[in-house]
Amino acid sequence: MDRLIYTAMSGATQALEQQAVVANNLANTSTTGFRAQLATFRAVPMAFGDGSTIQDDTTRTFVLSSTPGADYTPGPIQQTGNPLDVAVQGPGWLSVLTPDGSEAYTRAGNLHVDENGQLVTASNMPVVGGGGPLSVPPGSQVTIGRDGTVSALIPGDPPTSIAIVDQLKLVNPAPASLTRGDDGLFRTADGNPADADPNVVVAAGALEGSNVNPVAAMVSMITNARQFQMQTKMIESADQNEQSANKLLDFS
After folding, report:
1. Alpha-carbon torsion 41, 42, 48, 50, what sign?
2. Cβ neighbours of residue 223 closer than 8 Å, sequence gap 6 or more
3. For residue 2, what are the contacts with CB-CB under 8 A and spacing of at least 6?
4. What residues does each domain of the chain span?
5. Which residue stretches of the chain have pLDDT < 50?
6. Would you list the DSSP string of the chain?
7. What SS3 string covers 154-187?
8. pLDDT tens digits for 26-75?
9. Angle at CA 143, nearest 5°, toward 137 and 146?
10. Is 31 in contact with 76 (CB distance < 8 Å)?
């Protein structure tokens, strides 16, 4: 009887985990550049013995979560008119510098210039340029080109004096080599910075939205809730069967 209980228990546990993933995705439907999180599961047969006797066989199958991944499908691009907003078109990532000094990658291109003249993300992480954190002259008018080139025009200077100050480090590592951190940023699995890719292009004055489909996420939440309910009913049925068996043993 314990076989049914443990199988249903593992199924219920993974249904709850899947529900947490879907809820997080649903909460980020309006987050700029968000990539939907994926959670996959696999069946793990539990066998006892070495298979040399008829009693040595698979007795139950557990459900375990596999390595979670992400949906790298591009999200919708919307025009904002803000010259510091950039949206990566097609595959690719913006490079940022995390508080621990390592390099991470994001699709959230809602940038701004901080009080130190550095180009930073909405969460105040410095954007990486050709030689490190990207800085612009104070009070200058900044424009970003299709290839990530950052140009600046100092107030009072003629338009012809606009100068290129740096270039965004745009990368395109293989999706299989990326891992998502708890901060929502992506990093290479080996921890080494990815090389700049000249084929990555951006659209200035635009932002990429989340690639989460709210309708599909809501359907997944309902499905997970029903699966969890089914697993708990199986546990209740197993308990009732065991109680009935105990009563029969008492009468014998």
Report:
1. negative
2. none
3. none
4. 2-71+212-251, 77-208
5. 53-56
6. -HHHHHHHHHHHHHHHHHHHHHHHHHHTTTSTT---EE--EEEEEEE-S-SSSTT-SEEEEEEEE---EE--PPPPEEE---TTBEEEESS-EEEEE-TTS-EEEE---B-EE-TTSBEE-TT-PBBEETTEE-B--TTPEEEE-TTSEEEEE-TTS-GGG-EEEEE--EE---GGGEEE-TTS-EEETT-PPPPB-TT-EEEETEEE-----HHHHHHHHHHHHHHHHHHHHHHHHHHHHHHHHHHHHHH-
7. CCCCCHHHCEEEEECCEECCCHHHEEECCCCCEE
8. 999 999 999 998 877 777 776 655 555 444 456 666 676 666 688 999 99
9. 135
10. no
* Both tokens assigned to 77: 């691009």
Residue linked to tokens 């596999």: 66
**Angstrom distance (rounded) from CA 201 to CA 132:** 19
> Which tokens sit at 73?
């499908």
Give the pLDDT of residue 97. Answer: 95
Residue type at 134?
L
